[in-house]
Write a structure and sequence with these properties.
The structure holds two protein chains of two kinds. By secondary structure, chain A is α/β, with parallel strands linked by helices. Chain A has helices at about 5-10, 35-40, 45-55, 70-75, 115-125, 140-150, 150-160, 160-185, 200-220, 240, 260-265, 280, 285-300, 320-330, and strands at about 65, 80, 90, 135-140, 190-195, 225-230, 250, 270-275, 305-310. Chain A has a single domain (about 20-330), classed as TIM Barrel (Alpha-Beta Barrel). Helices cover about 45% and strands about 10% of the residues of chain A. In chain A, the strands form two sheets. A seven-stranded parallel sheet of chain A has the order 1-4-5-6-7-8-9. Chain A starts with a helix and ends with a helix. The mean pLDDT of chain A is about 95. By secondary structure, chain B is α/β, with parallel strands linked by helices. Chain B has nine helices and five strands. Chain B has helices at about 5-10, 15-30, 35-55, 60-80, 105-115, 130-140, 155-165, 185-190, 200-210; strands spanning about 90-95, 115-120, 140-145, 175, 195. A five-stranded parallel sheet of chain B has the order 2-1-3-4-5, sandwiched between helices. The mean pLDDT of chain B is about 90. The chains are: A alpha/beta, B alpha/beta. The interface of A and B includes residues 86, 91 and 283 of A.
Chain lengths: ~325, ~210
């Protein structure tokens, strides 16, 4: 089986030679074509080249078309810093006061240069014969957090929920346009990363975030795209809901108990996780990584479950440890 | 509900204006500022801390509670100073070099302040030498270091090394935390304390000064 066949088959519930490897390898891909992190984030051709090389080298079953979480927010006016040695971050927020949200209007992909770049990278990656690209759409809570500042957004969500909803609706429109662009370039898969959403209570998640995330996955389905949700952190309290969003795959981080998550998901989606990216991949030897993945895989081998680190790997994660994940997955079958 | 319970209740609900009004009223009625602090504000913040630890409240609720606490403290501070009420201790807190994340650090700071500890907040992306200087200048006995990123967590070790190099490592306790940080990592870098959440961090901080 090649990666495309493996991923399609596993999601369809058919037999596979081994479970797909959807490890989010993050900026470790920079080592593939020896680019620095700002280049990885700013030059889509170099990013796509690195991601495709990494997918083959690490034996991944997707090409990670993604770099950072601030592309969308940058389009809305957030000042983004690009340090030489780490991923870009919001250095100044577009919205100083949530009640100013009315001055924002939904942007199209064409209005946001680095989002256009991501579509171009996805288009190029789709030329790969044996591995599907999976392109990152940053989730509504995280985009809003990068426009307003996460801490302020959290307080706004209690103080000014209507204004927060307005902001979330605006950024969701951009995500919907982004999916349309992806579909037009022949994509089959996408993923939504929304780490900020896991900071909210279940009630606030249900009221503020879930309707917007659902809209994104619904639109994906209408466009023929299969979605994956990545919400890192402790999402135990919302798995019951995230499993019903319409995402085929829902990632779970290492703080979540896999068994409990499987019970809460009740077979509505495939869960994907959840070893510790630091303790079990970054700061250990390859044998430890291999054994940890293998033990997890053997424990839940009969479930609708995939196995990988629960969150993005640090930039300097040893290559042999990343390869140990693929080795263990081959043994699990 | 007595005055202290009422202040704590408003704080737990994140009502900053209510807390300010109730603290002012209590002071006007001759209630001791120290009692307002310890039996009202601190009690309320402890409740929120426990609820946060038990996943009964989440980050937004903690932030608005802390904002309410600060509103009350702002009014109380001059009265506390006038009465010679000293903080139970001083802590230097920051997010380490290379890391711009501040929510976790701010949560811990708010909880620690809720324990009556004065916090010298150096912000985010802080160079180890600045921390050493702050400890020397303030006489703080506790250093709290946050890191959210796997790429920056070793910055906590850099701070410990800098404290050693400055000859003041044995004068301070170093507490570390952040999403990727574990007890094993804390042990590896020679930190004195690791806690999983902000409420536990505040309790551990208070324990150092008791």
């Amino acid at each position: 089986m090649n990666s495309k066949e493996r991923l399609d088959a596993f999601i369809a519930g058919s037999a596979v030679d081994r479970r797909p490897n959807l490890t989010i390898v993050g900026s470790t891909v920079c080592r593939m074509n020896r680019i620095d992190i700002p280049t990885y984030c700013k030059e889509w051709r170099r990013m796509e080249e690195a991601a495709e090389l990494a997918a083959h080298e690490y034996r991944l079953d997707f090409i990670q078309v993604a770099s950072d979480l601030v592309r969308e927010a940058e389009g809305y006016g957030t000042e983004v810093a690009f340090p030489a040695d780490r991923l870009p971050y919001a250095a100044g927020y577009a919205l100083e006061d949530i009640t100013d949200v009315s001055r924002l209007h939904p942007l199209k992909v064409q209005d946001i240069p680095r989002l256009c770049d991501l579509v171009l990278a996805a288009q190029k990656a789709a030329e790969c014969a044996d591995i599907y690209p999976m392109t990152l759409a940053v989730g509504p809570a995280t985009v809003a957090g990068n426009i307003r500042g996460v801490e302020d957004l959290m307080m706004d969500s209690l103080d000014e929920p209507e204004a927060v909803e307005e902001l979330l609706d605006i950024v969701t429109e951009t995500s919907l346009d982004f999916l349309k662009c992806l579909a037009e370039t022949g994509q089959k898969y996408f993923y939504v990363a929304d780490p900020v959403a896991s900071l909210l209570s279940p009630r606030m998640y249900l009221n503020l975030i879930l309707p917007r995330q659902k809209k994104i996955f619904d639109r994906g389905r209408e466009l023929g795209l299969t979605g994956r949700l990545h919400m890192c952190g402790n999402t135990t309290h919302v798995i019951e809901y995230t499993s019903q969003l319409g995402a085929a795959i829902v990632d779970i981080d290492h703080m979540v108990d896999y068994g409990e998550a499987l019970e809460k998901a009740a077979g509505r989606c495939i869960l994907n996780g959840n070893i510790d990216p630091v303790a079990d991949v970054f700061s250990c030897d390859a044998a430890h990584t291999h054994d940890t993945i293998l033990a997890l895989g053997q424990k839940y081998a009969s479930e609708k479950a995939m196995f990988m680190p629960g969150c993005e790997l640090p930039t300097t994660t040893p290559t042999e440890n990343i390869l140990a994940i693929a080795d263990a997955l081959a043994e699990i079958g | 509900m007595n005055v202290f319970e009422s202040i704590a209740d408003s704080l737990e609900r994140g009502r900053a204006k209510e807390v300010s009004a109730k603290v002012t009223e209590a002071l006007d009625n001759g209630v001791s500022p120290e009692q307002i602090l310890n039996e009202g504000l601190v009690v309320g913040m402890n409740v929120i801390g426990e609820q946060f630890k038990n996943n009964e409240v989440f980050v937004p609720e903690v932030l608005v509670a802390a904002r309410a606490m600060n509103a009350g403290l702002k009014i109380l501070k001059p009265y506390l100073q006038k009465e010679g009420v000293e903080p139970v201790g001083k802590a230097v807190i920051c997010t380490v070099k290379g890391d711009m994340h501040d929510i976790g650090k701010n949560l811990v700071k708010m909880m620690i302040e809720g324990q009556g500890i004065e916090c010298i907040d150096l912000g985010v992306d802080v160079d180890p030498q600045r921390i050493v200087d702050a400890v020397k200048e303030s006489g703080a006995k506790l250093v709290c270091l946050s890191a959210l990123l796997t790429t920056t967590m070793y910055g906590q070790k850099d701070v410990i090394d800098a404290l050693k190099a400055a000859g003041i490592r044995d004068q301070v306790k170093v507490m570390v935390g952040g999403a990727p940080v574990t007890q094993a990592f804390a042990d590896e870098i020679g930190a004195d304390c690791y806690t999983l959440d902000a409420a536990s961090a505040a309790k551990a901080a208070r324990a150092y000064f008791d």
